[in-house]
Amino acid sequence: MRKSHPVRRVVLATAATVSGVVLMLSLKPSSDPASAQAGGTIPQQTAAAQESAQGGTGAAAGGAVTGDVVQTQYGPVQVRITVSGNKITKAEAVQAPKGGESDQKTALSVPKLSQDVVAKQSAQIDTVSGATYTSEGYKKSLQSAIDKANEAASQAQPSAQPSQPAGGGGAAAAKTVTGAVSQTQYGPVQVRITVSGGKITKAEAVQAPKGGTSDQKTALSIPKLNQEAVAAGSADIDSVSGATYTSEGYKKSLQSALDQAGG
């Protein structure tokens, strides 16, 4: 028997080793996330994964805000507004007086009030003739909804420049202040004002005498006093004839609110 030559055995062993290495390399996966990251290449995320990591697609600023319930002589009134792009795009009454004549007055007044809100972008809207109580309740609930929308907007963007919030022209710097309650012979009077740019932009009575003849005197005097406060920009306004006590109480509470607002 012929003996294998030593050199031949070395060549054969070397060839076998090389073949094994080539086979192992051919079986190894072409891509390895761990090794790719170690080499400085991070696998790309899918669009869905990226969106999930960022908390999803952000909705447009705004949304629906519901104001406080305001009790009127004929029933509760509650207003809901929809805000988009810092503007009121819709206003509606989720509660309004109903039953008997109230159905007719509500059907007459609420659509007009809602349209006026979108047009004027504030709670400074006209009272609908023949539906005074519903109108006043609507405006109070509307103002509370606007206040909530403004507060939510300011909390959502604490570091951003103040933008125009719901409620109209540059109200971002506006401040709402409620004066002290002034007791009169016929009941308490309390005034709330909105101040912007050093001026009274809105005045309203959150409390006023009611019951019996007081209802008529309040309905007669308060709208006039509110207008006078905005026009004068101070508590130096005229008393309404026939409603002297209410007028005096209004002016005292108004002055209290002005003092709190810084004069």
Secondary-structure element order, as H and E?
HHHEEEEHHEEEEHH
Helix content: 40-55%
* Percentage of residues in DSSP E strands: 15-25%
Bulk shape: globular
Alpha-beta content class: alpha+beta
Number of strands: 8
* Cα separation of the termini: 123 Å
Q: Tell me the number of helical segments per DSSP (H or I, 4 or more residues long).
A: 7
Uncertain stretches of 5 or more adjacent residues: 25-61, 168-172
* Overall pLDDT confidence: 78
User: Could you describe the largest sheet, including whether it forms a barrel?
Assistant: 4 strands, antiparallel
Radius of gyration (CA) equals 36 Å
Description:
- The protein has 263 residues and is α+β, with helices and mostly antiparallel strands.
- Helix content is 45%, strand content 20%.
- It contains 7 helices and 8 strands; from the N terminus they run αααββββααββββαα.
- The protein has helices spanning 6-27, 33-38, 47-53, 101-120, 132-156, 213-232, 244-261, and strands spanning 62-66, 70-72, 75-84, 87-95, 175-178, 182-184, 187-196, 199-207.
- The strands form 2 sheets. Strands 1, 2, 3 and 4 form a 4-stranded antiparallel β-sheet that branches.
- It is globular, with a radius of gyration of 36 Å.
